[in-house]
UniProtKB/TrEMBL annotation:
The keyword Metal-binding applies. Binds and transfers iron-sulfur (Fe-S) clusters to target apoproteins. Can hydrolyze ATP. One of its GO terms (molecular function) is ATP binding. ATP binds at residues 92-99. This is Iron-sulfur cluster carrier protein. It comes from the Bacteria. Pfam families: ParA (PF10609). Keywords: ATP-binding, Hydrolase, Iron, Iron-sulfur, Metal-binding, Nucleotide-binding. Homodimer. The keyword Iron-sulfur applies. It comes from Sphingobium lignivorans. PANTHER family: IRON-SULFUR PROTEIN NUBPL (PTHR42961:SF2).
Length: 337
């Protein structure tokens, strides 16, 4: 496995990403920072030459005003954003931390300069509104298309949790659930280049609709280290294989518990199982996330640890760099690994 940071550059801190996003009015993408030089792509489609130059000037100035940035390089493109590239996050069984991983992956990818959005495809048990602290919001619609809901992380998102009443049980049959998912994915994602889709656990109708109709660029599989979860993860991998959706790699969650009192590390579910399984299946291993009470608390409060700089978020940032590296390599045709 290569170090994704080589191609992804240095991490873009949240303040810089937000400043560039606001100054460029959502038209900046592909932010990279290397040796103090910030480079980015500016979508100037629909602007006249004076408007284009004024925007480029404002963006350059905003970058230079940021501490540590010595120069700003802008590549202009007149392409209005196409449909976003989809990365699906899946698991063979429930409760392995798939939604937690999906949210923190999205946050960390945004910090790497990607314009990220999220869809909660867990139609029956949506959890993204809680994890991104956007409960109680209702998306508006423009014509027949939904407008994604904003949140404090700057990640536009849509979830059935925003459409159903709080606590309302959603008891749809497969095709209806597939149509509901279609509404979320076909929303107005203008300005979003990468859509992280949190799939429901397992390999049922909703997952099938998703991958047949919307063809993700790749999938990330989350598993805990114990054998039973790994057997289910292997089933999810073969599901994606059959649908010809490349598996970007596997993540092992809840491995290695650090006791908050004595610091002793124990492995309630074992450790290393997912890495061994990935190796056996010829897949990349994207990283290991320890079982950590601080992670659960922060998640429950709608504060994804990947947004901060403390160690709880570090595994997610490393995983995001590998995913960014994979996506960049897909786009440019460079070898992965
Ligand atoms: N590494 C971890 N350390 C501690 N708690 C975790 C960790 N990962 C996830 N959790 C907690 O485990 C619970 C389940 O996580 P999550 O909802 O992300 O799982 P899921 O696989 O998406 O579940 P579902 O099947 O319901 O979609 C949550 O309370 C979450 O905060």
């Amino acid at each position: 496995m290569s170090d994704g940071s080589r191609d992804a550059g240095q991490a873009i801190d949240a303040a810089l990403a937000e400043r560039m996003d606001m100054t460029a009015q959502g038209r900046a993408s592909g932010l990279r920072l290397r040796d103090g030089v910030l480079s980015l792509v500016l979508d100037v489609g629909g602007l006249d030459p004076a408007g284009r130059d004024a925007l480029a000037e404002k963006v350059t100035q905003a970058g230079r005003d940021h501490p540590g940035i010595t120069d700003v390089r802008i590549a202009m493109t007149a392409e209005r954003s196409a449909a976003p590239v989809i990365v699906a996050v899946g698991s063979g069984k429930g409760g392995v931390g798939k939604s937690t991983l999906a949210v923190n992956l999205a946050v960390a990818l945004k910090r790497l300069g990607k314009r990220v959005g999220m869809v909660d495809a867990d139609i029956y048990g949506p959890s993204l509104p809680r994890l991104l602290a956007s409960e109680g919001q209702r998306p508006e619609a423009e014509g027949k298309r939904l407008i994604p809901v904003p949140n404090a992380q700057g990640i536009p998102m849509l979830s059935m949790g925003h459409l159903a009443k709080p606590g309302q049980a959603i008891a749809w049959r497969g095709p209806m659930a597939g149509n509901a998912l279609g509404q979320l994915i076909d929303a107005d994602w203008r300005g979003t280049e990468l859509l992280i889709v949190d799939l429901p656990p397992g390999t049922g109708d909703v997952q099938l609709t998703m991958i047949q109709r919307y063809k993700p660029a790749g999938a990330v599989i989350v598993s805990t280290p114990q054998d039973l979860a790994l057997i289910d993860a292997a089933r999810a991998i073969s599901f994606f294989d059959q649908a010809k959706v490349p598996v970007i790699g596997m993540v092992e969650n809840m491995a290695g518990y650090v006791c908050p009192h004595c610091g002793e590390v124990s492995d309630p579910f074992g450790s290393g199982g997912a890495e061994a399984e990935a190796a056996a299946m010829g897949l990349a291993f994207l990283g290991r996330v320890p079982l950590d009470i601080a992670l659960r608390r922060a998640s429950d409060e709608g504060q994804p640890p990947a947004a901060g700089d403390d160690p709880v978020g570090a595994p997610f940032r490393a995983i995001a760099e590998r995913v960014a590296h994979w996506l960049d390599a897909q786009r440019t045709g460079a070898p992965i690994g």
